[in-house]
Amino acid sequence: MTKIESITGTGIPLLLDDIDTDRIIPARFLRCVTFEGLGEHAFEDDRIQDPDHPFDKPQYQNASILLGGRNFGCGSSREHAPQSLIRWGIKAIIAESYAEIFFGNCTSLGVPAVCAPRETLEVLNREIQDHPDQELTVDLTTMKIRCGDQEFDCTLPENARSALISGTYDFLAQLLKSESEIKERAASVPYFTSFA
Amino acid sequence: MSNTKNLFDKVWDLHTVKTLDSGQDQLLIGLHLIHEVTSPQAFEMLRDRDLKVMFPERTMATVDHIVPTQNQARPFEDNLAEQMMSAIEKNCREFGITLLDVDDVRQGIVHVVGPEQGLTQPGMTIVCGDSHTSTHGAFGSIALGIGTSQVAHVLATQTMALGRPNVRQVKVNGELGPGVTAKDVTLYIIRKLGVQGGVGYAYEYAGDVFDRMSMEERMTVCNMSIEGGARCGYINPDQTTIDYLEGRPFSPKGAAFDKAAEWWLSLASGPDAQFDDVVEFDAADIEPTVTWGITPAQSVGVSENLAPISSYPEDEQTLIKEAFRYMELEENQPIKGQKIDVAFIGSCTNSRISDLREAAKVVEGRQVSDHVKALVVPGSQLVRKQAMEEGLDKIFIDAGFEWREAGCSMCLAMNPDKLVGNELCASSSNRNFKGRQGSPTGRTLLMSPTMVAAAAINGCVTDVREMLSAVTA
């Protein structure tokens, strides 16, 4: 798989707390058997109610780095949420913190979801609003965010970081290697053998 | 002998196949529950890679999110829903998985069906592509919601890659007041610890309040662990757990059951068990609780007024203002007396037989307020059947409730049951997010099923304790 060492692109600001996955992709769009076409419905209901929603603003249409707040992606486990963001064009997320299932989904889809402190997010938020064409870089090798001349620290749990930079974030191939160990382990778990 | 391991660590260690290069553990999964929404793409991933399901007998499928609760005739009126149903039917046939379909009397909400059938047992690792999988922790299992890629991993290998969370013991001791339910306990915990308070943790619920709860009440508490940000929640197995499991279709039988029961009890965290964190609450402080905002932590006791915006920390005030604006509520106002439009009793949190029995006690001999649309949606066909045998359907129907077929219904509204416009719904479900109940501007007040019943009768948020005392007087 592709090694993901850094993502560079323009940003889109959505510095709000507790953005849940129902808001990212409303439930009615989960009536599907593939993830195709979910991109155009990202934040659909929020966009209807807010004519100024960043996902509708022309200056952010080519953005690939999403700026979020605290507890981003809380709620439903639907992988449709990161899938819709990816299909909209998002390649990395910078937020204060994430709900864990959402974070896991992002990682396994090759989207770095890094954490940065509030002060950093506020600076980046201003930068993106003032200079929408300004490129940002999320560098996983140095764990820095670069924006023009400025550089900020960010964090990512080491297991996610190593999976992304080594290109092993789709765990299926690794899991498949352990077939004999899986069967051996199963044989030692009492209920797998019906308590025989 | 000192035993410092808690249940979580005992179960995790038993199921660890190996530690992967990334530092995550490859965890063996004992029970994989699937449903129609988050599985079709996973089966496609298997087909793309020419893989089989490694342990089809450890996977069980049912249908719930998309199922209409009125007209269930096939093909469904909604063509997209019909496509999803056809997909899970085809996938289960092709990959050798048992499906509890709409024509099977065991069908229902996946988190109601698992325990009801005895599929959910202590000491298991349980996953499902649904965040409320945490429900199954009520039995002392590690039960986790997962995404669709992980559904594919589990289908193909019966394992998944996961970092081990810390364990926080959440203790509630003392006596709950009359009319205070398991739902109020869980809403109270989320209010106190916050919607992201549990991030990085599994919650062990302990203390005499949980010890005294029935299995159904424990499921309600564990169900909403995810709303508090916890990766999962659990309660140690005890005699209540064993009594619930005995005689269920998928429970062990005879000598195997005795052996199983002994093992289940041995998994419980001992008195010397270590935790990464411990918090404690007093049961006497909990009253019937109602959410007023757009996250499950934004709640108040029914007798309280909504707090002024200035009382919140400065960095939360933007969100609080937005919650007031969206909900069309005002600071300092009482929540009691707030007029509602819809009353919904159902969802994986509160659609079990005990929920319907308790709500029926409030409803019996009374009438739903004229301006309220009220519905009861049992969590499974078996719950529905049991309720009808007990005459609960008649109590609800006589009072003016709609009596529906089993399904997820208006909890997330992936089916025809939806709020309209900015209707305000008293709901026994688990999420009050913006737009959650199917209308982009719909509004949700979460509360216990008995509180929903009381609100339906009075047409406004009501302190159910006042009605209960009238019943027993």
From TrEMBL, chain A:
Pathway: Amino-acid biosynthesis; L-leucine biosynthesis; L-leucine from 3-methyl-2-oxobutanoate: step 2/4. GO terms for cellular component: 3-isopropylmalate dehydratase complex. GO terms for molecular function: 3-isopropylmalate dehydratase activity. Catalyzes the isomerization between 2-isopropylmalate and 3-isopropylmalate, via the formation of 2-isopropylmaleate. Signal peptide: none annotated. InterPro entries: 3-IsopropMal_deHydase_ssu, Aconitase/3IPM_dehydase_swvl, AconitaseA/IPMdHydase_ssu_swvl, IPMI_Swivel, LeuD. Heterodimer of LeuC and LeuD. This is 3-isopropylmalate dehydratase. Its EC number is 4.2.1.33. Residues 3-111 form the Aconitase A/isopropylmalate dehydratase small subunit swivel domain. Keywords: Amino-acid biosynthesis, Branched-chain amino acid biosynthesis, Leucine biosynthesis, Lyase. It comes from Gimesia fumaroli. NCBIfam families: leuD (TIGR00171), PRK01641.1 (NF002458). CDD domains: IPMI_Swivel (cd01577). It is an enzyme of class 4 (lyase). It catalyses: (2R,3S)-3-isopropylmalate = (2S)-2-isopropylmalate. One of its GO terms (biological process) is L-leucine biosynthetic process.
Automatic annotation (TrEMBL), chain B:
The keyword Iron-sulfur applies. Residues 9-459 form the Aconitase/3-isopropylmalate dehydratase large subunit alpha/beta/alpha domain. Its cofactor is [4Fe-4S] cluster. Its EC number is 4.2.1.33. Binds 1 [4Fe-4S] cluster per subunit. Catalyzes the isomerization between 2-isopropylmalate and 3-isopropylmalate, via the formation of 2-isopropylmaleate. Heterodimer of LeuC and LeuD. HAMAP family: LeuC_type1. This is 3-isopropylmalate dehydratase large subunit. It comes from Gimesia fumaroli. The gene is leuC.
